[in-house]
Amino acid sequence: MSATTTLPAWQLPDRDLTTRLLATQRQQNIAYAEQLETIRELDSRGTVPEGYSSTAAYLATILHLTPREARSRLAQATGSLPLTGKALTAGEITAQHAAVIAEFLAAAPRWLTPEDYTVAEDTLVTLAQQANPSTVRRAATRLKIYWDNDPSDDEPDSDADPDAASGSSSASGSARPWREFRWHWTRAGRFRFTGNVDQETGTLIEQLLVPLAAPDPATAPGTPDPRTPAERHGDAVAAIVDLAARTPDLPTKAGERAVATVTVSLETLQNAAKTVFTDDESVLPASHLRRILCDAKVYPAVLGTEGQVLDMGRATRTATNAQRRALAVRDRGCTFPGCDRGPKWTTPHHVVHWSDGGPTDLGNLASCCERHHRLLHHSGWRITIRNGVVYWIPPSILDPEQKPLRNTAHNPPPEPLRSSRKPARRPASAPPPSAAAS
């Protein structure tokens, strides 16, 4: 037993606190796997004491669990989830991850083959090793949508949306899209409306709303935008309507951001430890400026010895719209391991900083959401690109080996599931694919 594990937390240096957090989480994961193994053995023996109606009821009582949690653990213990169990035993995923995966696969379509079932489990376990349970649940939901909408399924869906069925005019690709919009004036003079549109139009509306509904920057520290999300979206709709009357002024996606003037020497910009002054007399570290400038146009000013402006250059730093579209295709969104933010939430980041001579080309750009862009600039994470694939290298405090990690949160459904025809459906009495796989 190391000295780190025997010392109280308050006596540990900062780095060892992180080390202990990682170690104790791994221990919890392993202990949970051991508990599931014990539950499986208990259930298989049928030795639940008299007075309890089931194994789940017994677990709920002695472990002080809710009935739902007890049933969930029993299902995880008795189900056939070899890849999930292996990752849990190795301490690589948490109990919440295991619960999400088990719940999803238990509801998998009965037509899945054992191979399809195993590939689906592998996909979710791989993502669970780098993402939180909420992200894994969203990935599982996307996979379910893919299964439910397989074009090879020519059987009618009894659970189809009745509203969609009523829109018979959009039954085929050549028919007009089904859209509705209802409105009326209230007695208070308000314009109230409801409606729904097709997917293509909805996507376009979302692309307009997202940038326009962004929170306003704080006017001072601790004073964030006071509007609620609903109020911000209301203001965004008003802006869209106003701009629609002036079509040439409609906003374009990934347009130029606000211009700020910063007077700084190249030497200072390259030295992240120094501070710089903006034109509004605020002060910020050079490292913060470098992050901000990742998605801003830079107008270099060449100053003479007396400070006079000798020459003003042109904007040379930002990715073009064509490059942004290419990044959206290549990266599919934020490249941080486990992040499922889509392309519209990201900005291009220079792997080799532009101020250090890094070019603005696809081989030196990676998509990052705002949260992970900040993490990249102000922590020990680094990025590298190999054969067009973005890898994140964790700081040594998180991984002493600093193994490069690739994000799998944007991966499409597993290839074995992309069959031209679904396998024949098994009768209701047939065992689930997990049992067949075991």
From TrEMBL:
It comes from the Bacteria. Residues 147-175, 400-438 are annotated as: Disordered. InterPro entries: DUF222, HNH, HNH_nuc. Belongs to the Rv1128c/1148c/1588c/1702c/1945/3466 family. Residues 163-175 have a biased composition (Low complexity). It holds the Pfam family HNH. This is DUF222 domain-containing protein.
